[in-house]
Amino acid sequence: MIKRFGQVSQGKSRVLVSVLLLVVTAFLLLTAILLVRIKLLQNTQNLGGALARSYALEEELFLDNMKKNVMLASQYIDEFQSDETDLEEVQRWLQGYFSKLINILGEGTVDPYAVVDGQIIAANPWDGDEDYRYQDTLWYQQALEAGGEAVCSDAYTDIINGKRVVTISQALAEEGDVFAMDVFIQEAKSRSSVLELPKEYSYYLCDQDGLLVYALVDRDLDAQTLQTHADYLIERIHDGSLYAFDSTFKDLSGVSRGAYYYQMSNGWTVIITIPIQSMLMGDPNMAIYFMAVVAVVLFLVMAYMVIRDAYQIRKIKRADDTAHMLGDSFYAIFRVNFQEGTYEAIKVSDDTRDTFPAHGDYSLVMQTMYRLVKSNTYHTFEVCFSLDNIRQRAKEGVRDYGGDYQRLFGDTYRWVNIRTLYDPKRAPDEVILCFRDVDAEKRQELQHTILLQEALEAAKKGTKAKNEFFSRMSHDMRTPLNAILGCCDLAQKSRTPQDTGKVWDYLGKIQFAGKQLLSLINDILELSRLEAGKNALDESVFDLKELLSSIAEIFRENAQSEEKHFEVSIDFQETTVMGDGKKIGQILNNLLSNAVKYSRPGDSIRLEARQFAFQQHSKYQIVVEDTGIGMSQEFLAQLFEPYARETAFSAQHTVGTGLGMPIVKSLVQQMSGEITVESELGKGSRFTVTIPLKTISAQEMPQSEPAPKQTETFDWTGRTVLLAEDNELNREIVTELLEQLGATVLPAENGEEAVRVFCESSPYCVDLILMDMQMPVMDGCQSAEAIRKLERPDAAAVPIIAVTANAFSEDIARTTKAGMNAHVAKPLDIQVLTQTVQKLMGCAYPNTEEFGRRGGGDHGGSQ
Amino acid sequence: MDASKKARLEEAGINVEEALNRFMNNEAMMMKFLLRFPQDKNLPALRAALEAGDTEAGYTAAHTLKGVTGNLSMTRLYAAATAVSDSLRRQDLAAAKAAMPELEQMYARIMKALSEET
Hints:
The complex is a heterodimer. By secondary structure, chain A is an alpha+beta fold. Chain A folds into five domains: 44-282, PAS domain (Beta-Lactamase); 329-437, 2-Layer Sandwich (Beta-Lactamase), CATH 3.30.450; 446-515, Helix Hairpins (Orthogonal Bundle), CATH 1.10.287; 539-695, Heat Shock Protein 90 (2-Layer Sandwich), CATH 3.30.565.10; 720-851, Rossmann fold (3-Layer(aba) Sandwich). Chain A has 23 helices and 29 strands. In chain A, strands 18, 19, 20, 21, 22, 23 and 24 form a seven-stranded mixed β-sheet that branches. In chain A, strands 1, 2, 3, 4, 5 and 6 form a six-stranded antiparallel β-sheet that branches. A six-stranded antiparallel β-sheet of chain A has the order 14-13-12-17-16-15, sandwiched between helices. In chain A, helix 1 packs antiparallel against helix 7 (286-328) and helix 12 (500-531) crosses helix 17. By secondary structure, chain B is mainly α. Chain B contains seven helices and no strands. Chain B has one domain. Chain B has helices at 3-11, 16-22, 27-36, 42-52, 55-71, 75-89, 93-117. Classes of the chains: A alpha+beta, B mainly alpha.
């Protein structure tokens, strides 16, 4: 409907991008770590492989050297044998050779010996040489088979010292002669470069059968354990599971290690294992820790920025939504740059959509306004919202300025509010110009103003009328007072006995003036009471026809004495009604006295009353008509307004305050009735009063009403009275009084107890309940209501009499509403109570026989 | 009832005729209840309530006191209690307090007269 030129970026996608960025960064970091790890592992594999290979070569070289030693020794021995062989000489040489070898290689590394002419010759002769069957040994057979080449046996455990050993042997030139040398690899290794490996590296050398020849580990382990571990490694090498660069295994103490190996040409295997930890991290290094910390910090900073960004975007979005919602109450919004004289349309109304480009010259706005603003206000509008004025206001620091005017929408004018809003901090050169439809508010406001003016007018008029009334009333009061004082004066001066007649005359005048004054004051009091709304209705059952007739009779005499015709016609189907008879009498009195007052001799006055039956509430109509002087239309208009009597009217010799009709109207309204008047000057007046009254049929009538002569007294003997009264003393007084009269009293301290006592009594046992009104726990009304609601045959019928110290009519109304039958005043008067009960029993129990069935009471008790 | 006793009670603000009438001319019964009056707790309750500014409790006490004094035809005390009760019904604490000295005075007189009858 309304087009908006600006759109704010979508916050949500920005948040998404930020989060994505964060994830990508985390991924890159992890990938980098992984790549480095792979590279490190690959490097380690290369290094480990190279190490294993180099050690393998070293091993081969060592064995090769040993072979060369054997070959050299064999040639020496061959030289001894060229002529006659001296075995002892051979042995001496062998010992010399042995000691020289040991000097180079170390103690216990080698042990040379030879078979010459079928005899074993050793550098270190050992027991049992004589029985030793060298022909069966592997080294001997291998040497003979090799035919002059030095051969190396597989590793085996030496029987004598239990060490791992290999034997290198070579056949000598003489048939059947062999030179051999045992090499103890373990001892040889004690000088090897293997020992230079880092401490956490492990080194294993296994022969072609996988048996451990030599091991270097960082802990003390027995041979069996080491062999088991070596077996495990060999097995994994064979199945290829240690081949990959990143393959690892757990060593005996649970550390992850990588294994690197090389197979030597004689089938032996060199294995080096390195802990993964040490290859990845190397030594604990400050630089690495520093890098890690920097990476983590960078990542956290980035995460913080992303979160903050998301939070800010949300805040901006809320502010944006708020601005939109606020903006929705305006049908058009412009930003006006008053320095450059341009505008930017944020929002435009439908009917000016085509007129306004998104940006433009401010004069365009004013041109459009010329077309729309009601012509009589355009000039002011033009001046107030000219660029000069806007600039001026900005300079003065006016932040909010505007007002209401009528603007054309289609073909109707509506009230519109225009404002210029200025904030020097946010936009020092711009104001926001906005328009809001305030038609409904404005109209309401205008209406309120009119109402207020009217009320003010009425109040002024009322005050004026009241003031006039009081000044006139003072005058009216002064007249009879003057008459009284004057007559008193005259009476005092009449001293002679002949003046007695005069004195009587004066007294009569004084009485008349006094009465006049009294009625004046009564009227004023009555009216003020009515105005204060204090005069509550006092309803009772009475005969309406009788009431109207008796009042009419009073005026009949009056009228006839003034030679006026007086007619009465009353036509009721039911004459007994419930209502405030006193007030109805007051109404009729006023109407009839006016009729008599404002008619001339020969005129006629007519009272007519009839009934319109309408269900239970009948309407009674009373018409008072005269052919008297009547009233002017102007006077009629003010007839029911207090304090507004026409002075012209009072000039006629009439008596009264002018308050009569207002009082009548108030009374009629109070009884939910209505009063109308027709009158014509010189022709007479006709007042019609219609009042709804409840009719009472003959059965409903309290029979004792018309029979005060009947002195039937209620007999308390044998009666049971439930007495609810919270004050102990009061309760005892009433109890004792009633007991004196022969009644039984069931006392109750509060309303709740009263209900309980009643519940506990057997049905129809309690004849009467006396209920105090104000009690703790449960007051009289609540208690009565509760008793009436009980599920027992006498709950609805048992008479309940309220005992109240407040004879306020609203309190009495409450007792009736609570289902109580009557009320008596405090302090309790037994005679009054007895009368009330008498009346009540007559009504509530029409059949006195039934009521008296149990108590044996005597109803005819006339004394 | 002897005239001097009647005069003393009348002097203290008790309408003896009316009271006798209520108690069905049973002087003993009337005296019995009159002498019970000093035990009535409503005045202390009223004083306490006014002290505490509790108009509701004050109204209950004053109203009950009014009932009791009415029953005993203590006409002047009844009038004073009515004044206090009516003020409190209107929630007018100040007016109630203003009416208290009168009530206290009437009460004291009755207490004195009753103490002489025991």
